[in-house]
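Attaching the record inline, Q. Sequence:
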Amino acid sequence: MKLLNTGATNAKILKSQNGTQYKIASLTLYPNNVICAGAKAAGCMDLCLKDSGFSEIFESVNNSRKLKTDFYMQDQKAFLEKLRKEIAAWIRKCENENFIAAFRLNTISDIDWVSHDIPQEFSQAFFYDYTKRVKTVETGLANYKKIFSYSGTPQYQNQVKKALEIGCPVSVVFKDFVPVGKYFLGREIIDGDKSDITNTTAYNKICGLKLKGNKNKRELSENENLERRFVVHPSQAYDLEMQGAA
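Structure, as predicted:
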């Protein structure tokens, strides 16, 4: 079983590396409440990216992800050994082609790879991820950057408050479209769908992401209270002047 996707078949991975010095390899596991420890509080599992892209068309996509997750859960030592070998091989290939190897190991999971010493071991490579656990945002490593992922659920607001306090990039999923140039949570909204690598440097910004997946869009009720959910309605964004006037 090959763990890493090195073909940039993920549209966001491809956009993020195009025109850069990076070549990105990604790891896509099937999420659960163990490898996505913040998902329950954030209420994001139902509208997760696991139900978008090729997984909506081919059942085999999520079947493959589930096998990888089972591997990680059942034999973590062997999983990490194989992952290290694949990471090393990708770094060698990128160096031979005069690129910098980059890795997104949490495409739709939220594992603390620092606790496994992965980014520390491969300091010549660049790692980046999104996370719903604010305590893991600041990795302390120059080669591993994270973006905090917002949710409006009440039980998640302490984490949101902390993320805003430390000024890290915050991603927000918007329904229908991203209101670029407006403000949310007191921060300017940028187009976060352009590049995940650029998002890692968007301090004190909102990296706006459009809700992905036709299934997700169908299941999101027009009458649902989005203010208390993972997905935000564009009407919740505002002009900075309007906030000041209020």
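The chain is about 30% helix and 20% strand. The longest strand covers residues 22-27.

More tomorrow.
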